[in-house]
Amino acid sequence: MSLFKARDWWAAVLGEGEEFDQGCLCVGDVDNSGSGHDKIVVGSYMGMLRVFSPHPAKPGEPSPAHSQLLEVQLRDPVIQVEVGKFVSCSDLLHLAVLHPRKLSVYSVSGTAGNVEHGVQYQLKRVYEHNLQRTACNMTYGTFGGVTDHHSLCIQSMDGMLMFFEQESYSFGRFLPGFLLPGPLCYCSRTDTFLTVSSARQVESYKYETLAVATDAETRQDAEQHKLRADWTLVLGEQALDLSVPSFSPSSSSIFVCGERNLYCLKDNGHIRFMKKLEYNPSCFLPYSSVSEGTTNTLVGNHNNMLLVYQDVTLKWAAQLSCSPVAVRLANFPDLKGVVVTLSNEGHLQCSYMGTDPSFFSTPKVDAREQDYSQIDSEMKSLQRVIRQATRTQADILPVAETDEDLTVTATVSTNMDSTSVNTHTHTHTHTEMNTDVCVGSTTVVAFSAFLNGQYPPADLTGDVAVSYSSPTGIPRVAQCKFSLPLRLVCCPSAPSKNAKYKITVDTNKPPVNLSEVFPDFLEKSEDKEGNALAFHFLSGPRVTVLASKTSQRYRIQSESFEDIWLVAKELVQRFDRHFAKQGVKDFRNSFAGPIPLAEYFETVDHHFELRVSAEKYQDLLSERAVQFRAIQRRLLTRFKDKTPAPLQNLDTLMEGTYRQVIALADAAEENRACLNQAFVSLRSATHLLILLVSLWQGLNTEQNAILEATLLPLLQDTPQLGWEESVDAAVSHLLRTCLSRSPKDQALSLSTSQLSMPKDTVRLKKHITLLCDRLGKGGRLSLASEANVPMPVMMPGERGEECLCVSLSLSRSLSVSVCV
Fold first, then answer.
1. Which residue has the higher pLDDT, 161 or 586?
2. Secondary structure of residue 759 in the 3-state scheme
3. Dist. CA 3–CA 663, nearest whole Å
4. How far apart are the first and last CA of the chain?
5. Exposure of 381 in the CB half-sphere (CA atoms within 13 A)
């Protein structure tokens, strides 16, 4: 509710079930009375045309119904009404009424009566124009500098501006790039037409440019001879209305009312000022201000408010009885500067700004003496309550109710089914299920995971997210993680002594029997002492683990560098669990180095080469497609020609181009499959590199998370953003911040340069090498010094590529959605 309320001076309700819009209201001396007093003209979509001369009813005078001068039922809906000099042989004001397919100009005249009934008003049609296109809105003015009479411009629904000079039709022009009609306005100072296009920009067209442009009967013809706007200004939002104030010849302002902003522009399209609105406006009207150099603006909104701005300063706010869709200022015999508003339901109101004095006074409160002894005792009792409540932290923490708790647990079965050996089986890595859970009950949701592809997966962990709603409607999410067994993707095999890639993991405890650590991989082990164990992946690669008999070292070797990752991770985790069961608290895994960067960079180069090949295939496909379409156009022209002409081997060229397109598409598809496999291999190699760096420098959980977010920022490659440029940007940021040589060299802000595919991987490999070098020299990964940088969001990696039954247990009383 506004602090102030608009004072009702005169009001009327127009009809029942009629609809009105911003163009259905105008004010002016339409009957040419010569008194300078305005009349209100209102048209409706139902075809009703009304003219009013408001004056407030006083005791003993006729009712406000006598304020209505004229009411006529027209055949067509009224879109817009305007008052101006629209007749060539007369200097009197006439009324222009715009219908969907017709423009009519009327004269309103009054005949003095001989009896007490007063003056009788008549509506007489002077001329009309039948439109070939459906009209949307119109504007009028002294087009081309003609000052004696007004011309009309109508905008059609298909983007054509139709110009009328009084009784004659001048010309029509199509607006370029038109999609939907917008507000239209004429600026007499510059002789230009202003509109807001569907591109959400203000466009200005000079009348001279429109007049000399080439005629076009259809939009296709207009596209060949496009008009050029004098200037444009991008708003970024759709405009509600346009207005060019004409109260002062020296003023040069163009006002645009947007959905969320009010703009004031200069005649050249530059912004004079802009006001951000905290509401949705419904109409607006600029008018003259008493302060020199400023302009007042009336803005109505859908909260039944009428606000007055002086430039960008809010000067007044008044409450209306309804939401206005049109607002005008008018001068009446009894009052000048009356605000005339019209709602979409036909509430016509004349009001003025003002307040009523309030006679309410606050009643006096009986004063009483304060009892300080009672206040002191109350204070001491409150302090005792506070001390008791703050003795333990648990007492002041909110305790969740039992019926608000949802417990999610993931249980992985230890039994493999027959599908686990089928490497051709595919499944989605993201699964959604809906289920209902009752109070105090447990619901089990079972699903399977199996190998997806002809290569080992990059990870065997999964995430379960359960989204549900509380009884009060608050959305909540519960999460848990699970790990799939290594046996899902590999089986035991005979150990091999020689391999191309080797990794050595050190421990601080005596060597253990591998048979005790891997009891589920003893089927084909020939080593009775437990010093060797081999893993045969279902996709083909083999990985061997060898335990030293004399030292505390374990060697992991394979013919593929990235395949070592899953076995190395499993070995480190099982060692931790094995010694934890024995009660050993100081057990630690380590890696003596050096970090195998050369082997890792081979995987990086292979992935980058496939990305380059994908771009080449894309370019070649584009060239061959353009060539194919050009040959098709040539052949079509030959076939349409009435005079037969030889094809000049165009058919042969077309067939050869088609074969090239098919061959390139097959090659691009094969390259894409190889790129997907290379990215999974790259993720596995990167996981292995992170594990080795963590064991090498003893990184904690937080530092390990930062390193993983830096080297694994993407779940998959896209043509727009690849792994190389993302990692290069992340590593460069660490080198400029927490891993910089000195605090003075630390960057204070993030780099905002756009990421693009690099020419080669030299810079990336240099930065990764520098990262490992500075970590080896004592550098520590931390985000504590980066106050302006948000913490990295750890997104779950690609899950899948496995085959096992996993069950979820849910205890909750709500309907939940399970996303795996």
1. 161
2. coil
3. 75
4. 50
5. 6
Q: Phi first, then psi: what are they for 192, rounded to 5°?
A: -130, 160
Buried-state track 608-639, b at ≥16 Cβ within 10 A, e below 16: bebbebbeebeebbeebeebeeebeeeeeebe
Query: How far apart, in whole angstroms, are the C-alpha atoms of residue 658 and residue 664?
Result: 10
pLDDT by residue (tens digit) across 704-715? 899 989 998 887
DSSP codes of every residue in 210-234: HHHSPP-SSHHHHHHT----SEEEE
Topology of the domain covering 487-591: TATA-Binding Protein (3.30.310)
The upper half-sphere exposure of residue 189, i.e. CA atoms within 13 Å in the direction of its Cβ, equals 15
Q: Per residue in 614-659, pLDDT tens?
A: 999 999 999 999 999 999 888 888 888 777 777 778 888 989 999 9
Distance of CA 31 to the CA centre of its chain: 53
Chain position carrying tokens 């598809």: 669
pLDDT at 242: 94
Q: How many CB atoms lie within 10 A of CB 6?
A: 23
Rounded alpha-carbon distances, angstroms, from residue 606 to 325, 713, 767: 65, 19, 18
Question: Does residue 136 have a pLDDT over 80?
Answer: yes
**674 Cβ neighbours under 8 A, 6+ residues apart:** 610
The torsion angle over the Cα atoms of residues 195, 198, 200 and 205, rounded to 10 degrees, is -30
Regarding beta strands 313-319 and 4-5, do their DSSP bridges make them parallel or antiparallel, or are they unpaired?
A: parallel
Token pair of 28 as six digits: 């002016």
In 3D, which of 27, 70, 32, 33 has the Cα closest to residue 51?
70
Torsion-angle region of 440 (φ positive above 0: left; ψ -120 to 50: alpha; else: beta): left
Residue-wise pLDDT tens digits, 94-135: 999 999 999 999 999 888 765 555 678 899 999 999 999 999
Nearest to 346 by CA among 327, 328, 318, 324: 324
Instruction: Strand 25-28: give its sheet, edge to edge.
Output: 25-28, 39-43, 48-52, 68-73
Both tokens of 705, joined, read: 């998370």
CA–CA dist 86, 107 (Å, integer): 10
Is residue 808 within 8 Å of 449, Cβ to Cβ?
A: no
Mean pLDDT of all residues belonging to the chain: 82
**Long-range contact set of residues 322-326: C-beta below 8 Å, sequence gap at least 24:** 322/347, 322/349, 323/282, 324/282, 324/283, 324/300, 325/20, 325/21, 325/22, 325/282, 325/283, 325/300, 326/20, 326/21, 326/22, 326/23, 326/24, 326/25, 326/283
Which run of H or E residues covers position 264? strand 261-265
CATH ID of 133-217+225-269, from 2.60.40.10, 2.130.10.10, 2.60.40.420, 3.90.280.10? 2.130.10.10
The residue-averaged pLDDT of 71-75 equals: 93
DSSP state letter for 398: P
* Strand (E) or helix (H) holding 132: none
CA 292 to chain centre: 42
Helices (H) and strands (E) in the chain, counts: 11, 42
Q: Name, in order, each residue with C-beta under 8 angstroms of 222's C-beta and a sequence gap of 6 or more.
A: 173, 174, 176, 216
User: Where along the chain do its domains lie?
Assistant: 18-130, 133-217+225-269, 487-591, 597-697+700-777
Total residues belonging to the chain: 820
Instruction: Give, as one character, the DSSP assignment of residue 101.
Output: T
Distances (CA, A) of 168 to 95, 103, 723: 17, 12, 67
Residue 717 is classified by DSSP as -
pLDDT surpassing 50 at residue 816: no
Task: Round to whole Å and give the CA distance between 40 and 32.
Answer: 13
